Amino acid sequence: MIWRTSTLTWALFTCQHLxxxxxxxxxxSIDELEDIMMLNAGHRARGFANAVTPCTKETGxxxxxxxxxxxxxFHDMATGNTFTGVxxxxxxxxxxxxSSENVGPAFATTLNVYVPFFSSRLSLSDVIAAGVxxxxxxxxxxxxxxxxxxxxxxxxxxxxxxxxxxxxxTFRNQFLRMGYSSTEMIQFVACGHTLGxxxxxxxxxxxxxxxxxxxxxxxxxxxxxxxxxxAGITKNRLAFPPPNKKNxxxxxxxxxxxxxxxxxxxxxxxQSVCRTMFQKMIDVVPSGVVLSDVVTPYEIKPYDLQLxxxxxxxxxxxxxxxxxxxxxxxxxxxxxxxLVYKDRIGASSSTPxxxxxxxxxxxxxxxxxxxxxSANIPVQSSISxxxxxxxxxxxxxxxxxxxxxxxxxxxxxxxAPQSCLDGSGxxxxxxxxxxxxxxxxxxxxxxxxxxxxxPLPSLSTATVPMATQTGTGLYDxxxxxxxxxxxQAQSAEFGVFADNVxxxxxxxxxxxxxxxxxxxxxxxxxxxxxxxxxQGCYSDAGAPRALSASGSADDxxxxxxxxxxxxxxxxxxxxxxxxxxxxxxxxxxSNVMGLSDCSMPCSGNPSQTCGAGSRLSxxxxxxxxxPVNPPITGYNYLGCYSEADGGRTLGDTDTTSDDMTVEKxxxxxxxxxxxxxxxxxxxxxxxxxxxxxxxxxxxDCSMRCAGNSTEWCGAGRRLNVYQKIGVPTPIxxxxxxxxxxxxxxxxxxxxxxxxxxxxxxxxxxxxxxxxDDNNSYESxxxxxxxxxxxxxxxxxxxxxxxxxxxxMPELRKDDECSMPCAGNSTExxxxxxxITVFKSLTxxxxxxxxxxxxxxxxxxxxxSVGARVLQLSHYFDSNMTIAKxxxxxSGSKYxxxxxxxxxxxxxxxxxxxxxVQEKDCxxxxxxxxxxxxxxxxxLSLWQKIEGVGNGTTTE
Length: 955
Fold this sequence. Notes:
By secondary structure, the protein is of the alpha+beta class. It is built from 14 helices and 57 strands.
């Protein structure tokens, strides 16, 4: 029968040479297949499941994508013969789209989704098999075991797909040819017809108009079909009894007196049987094809391991990422991931390579954490292999790639900095080859389109001899060029081969248009000036930071730019090319490293060095003057005090000034018994310290005076207090914290900033916001995660921002913010036009618009639901980042993020849009709190630089 929906899968175990189950040693032939099956969302997500997630996704009106994916697999396999070993799941369906047995748009639509995942490392037939797993799992079905190693056909196969008008005997013979018994035939049909519909457009003699759902839950992989058939209430026209003539399901189900279909009414039986039936389907392959073990997720999987000759040939830079499976680990249990490596001759190194967290990812059944690393290793010793040490709160575990170690070969090194792809399509590839090795060749694999409607391209491999360019130390540098035709470069892969060693599986995306010559001189990019001096290259574990007082990230980072940002601190340093950190002391965990460890160019000046992954280029501010509490004639400095409960500590008079200093406040208070400075520019006077004010740690008063950065002027609800000589000292001169008051504004991890005036026309906090009937300090803080400030207002309103509005909102008495929170009546959530504001104690890195190779950030633009600006494609992700959106929209002229989790692509503006102020795009990306992802009706917009890249972030 012709399956109207994503129908079924059958596979043969007995006729194929299948390996026994064993742990896979990385790298393996199934690595690409494992990726598209396991990484659905988050960091490095491949997006394979997007077209069928959720299960209700349609390719057209009433056409369920998941059903079409399963139907495609069945039609590809159904012409196979397990007796002769000819055909099976071999992607011959690509050559059979116009066959009379393959009616409807399902096959072309499905294959067009699949083809972008096809490459020299992943056959289309393996992609079709992965599609069965993905579609079934997305719709709530069982996890189908998938093996890799299928080989694609190069021409159409025989006919033989079951047709809806066939007799029971014909069906039995056809399914027997595929490797199914009579009972399994019934089971398979029930499983295959749990999703989707039959359409009148393709089968008007079965469905007169519209569509006929196969059961009442067409977007759920469940046993509704068998239940409704046995109960006699099915609406599936293929299951209607005679006199209906094209009733394949009824013919199959009734062929054993309905005994098998009755057993399928049990939910557990249905899921278990369907798992077996679908696995059988995808394991039917031509004779000679050897399938791998069942694909299971790696516990540890490296990505993008790359050696690069650096520092004039004196070292090799080793970069990459490590993926750790976290399915069985509690969230946050990993405290570190290290690479313990051996040098070129196999001797163990005493210094492990550190890594930093780079992202999280999820699949249907598994979760993963990623860790990035970058280290410079002396070229004389180099590296040959490594093990991965995962440190957790419960102990450490070493992964050695099933005893093989994770191999690294430095005989042939692809040199990305010296390679390029110019505007004419000419690819130039450079490689460093250890002296004494064979002369290398450049090998390029391109995809050649076939005649329409076949979407499957053929692969063509070209080999180009490489010529010597220069030599440095232990290596000779070679180069070769290859010119692409048309759009071949977009999908091309290439590698460098020398005898039995290679550095391969490279992509053209991200290559610059101009090659940079190899610099054979060591770097000297650590500028000094009278304002600052270089201190060395230091390690930075990230938790805690080497410099933890303040930080920022900037795509135009330079040493001078970081020095200016950190001008009020004694130390500053740059990391990972674009990050800047400040502090007055270096954390004890930070150690001095070799200068070559800091090897990344500054994003704003490539001639300067800005650290590396977990490495900080450290500088000392020569003009640093530590802030003090200056002596004031007639007064003694008393200490840092909290504001009093229910009122001001000093309640007589006050003033505010943008050029406030301690001396200016003393003059204003004109002989008062006490004066104090708060929040950088506020001055308060009083004859007494009011009750409830207590002495606090000196570090709580951490804001510099607005008019003199060498003096301290309190902080939020903290005063630097001076006492007139001769005035009695207050009783409470030691640090004392009153018992917690459940109604007082307090929240662990935050400082209460105050009660501020807030209006609709001038919001104190202008970032994202919401109304919540369960509003509380805790829920609003969670909603505003990633922002420096959050505030609650009018009981049920929550606001976020990176800073308070300018000009500074008016600070009012605490009792003016007296409305109980909607979700916790013991907390006060502002009032009408009053907002209760908190500031995070977590070190704050302001969000930025990251550097995306091949694109320029254009600005913040208007958009609306009814008149979208970019309409080529879109997707939503609760862990959105700029990198994800750039990857999803790769090649589009424009891409933009909106409302935190939305991504839009387009080659033109479909509707009018206006460039607005940057502050309008104030939502941080949920997957990276250091980036902006638009706002409500606001797009953070990026435009492609013609002839450059395809949207790869450098974060």
